[in-house]
Amino acid sequence: MRPPPAQYGMWVRERYIVAIGYQAGMTGETRRPDFRKVQVTGGNSFVVSLPKSWVIDVGLRAKDPVAVMVQPDSSLLIIPRRDIRTTSKSEATLEASQGLDKDFLLRHFISYYLAGYDTIRITLGKADSSLRGFIREGIRRKLVGVEIIEESSGGILTQCLSGYVDLPLKKALERMAIIASGMLSDSVGVLKGGTRGMAEEVIERDDEVDRFYHFLLRQLNIAVRDRSVIQEIGLTSTRDCLGYRLVVKSVERVADHAAGIAAQAANLQSVSEGAVKKVQEMTALSKKVFDGSIAALLRLDGKLAEDAIARSKEVVQMEGKISREVLAPRMSGAQVASKKLMLESIRRTAEYGSDIAEIAIDLTVAEPQSV
After folding, report:
1. Minimal CB count within 10 Å: which of 248, 259, 334, 356?
2. How much of the chain exceeds pLDDT 70, in percent?
3. Residue 221 class from Cβ within 10 Å (0-12 exposed, 13-18 middle, 19+ buried)?
4. Contact call for residues 344 and 336 (beta carbons, < 8 A)
């Protein structure tokens, strides 16, 4: 169960320790390295024998090929060839029965997309003909790199493009964060003379953030399953995949809160100029926390991360002070609820930024090397 945002950073560190320990095969005993001598054969080739127990465990036989990949820390990664991504395409099929819930089908389509399938086929059968249009629109709004290559009354065939060569993971995350940050700024603008249409425009941008969210999860899932992809998407280890998985979710939640702020601001009327100014100041500080945490992550800058964490504490203090000042005694119950929800979303945005900053600090620490 995920803890409250305030304790989320420590939980992240604990999860890192568990994950790294599991990957290392820790069982309560310290695993000692198996030292082997480098030998020379034929005068030019250097050879190291493989542990027999490992060869048996992975099912290798004489003359089976293995991939040898140089890692950023100068170590070597040896992978059986069958575990390396091949040119064969994976395909999933979804069958839509009559009366099937549209959202149910779209959710399952997205789950296959996130799992890394190359093609996803939907057979409609006797299902409602409007289902095809709903799925097509859902793909457009929620996913990146999905092309409909065949479409008929009987079904839809889609192809999922990899995308990480043209749009590396860090660049995609940066774009996603820029959209979420812009939503946060514009959401408070609704409070100062904004219209319902302005609020709806902010809320609609949440779909664009969701598209990047699903795209990034797909890349991370593929990288965890196929270690040869990790460097291709711009990361260095499976630990990075865990950290970025948590970051991507935090950014997606920030966009959700920005949409919530816009919706609540549109419900408020006749807010005093002084109250608007205080809310804008709190939002500006929360935005600095979020922007600073993303910059710290992308640059792996510990100082920027610490600054973001310190500012997040200021936002929490501001929330309590502003709550007492902007809640007028004659406000209706609905208006009081809208203001409280809006201030809570601004504060939670800063807390998510603090979580991202703590992950950035974690990633600045090099993994321990085997001795």
Report:
1. 334
2. 82
3. middle
4. no
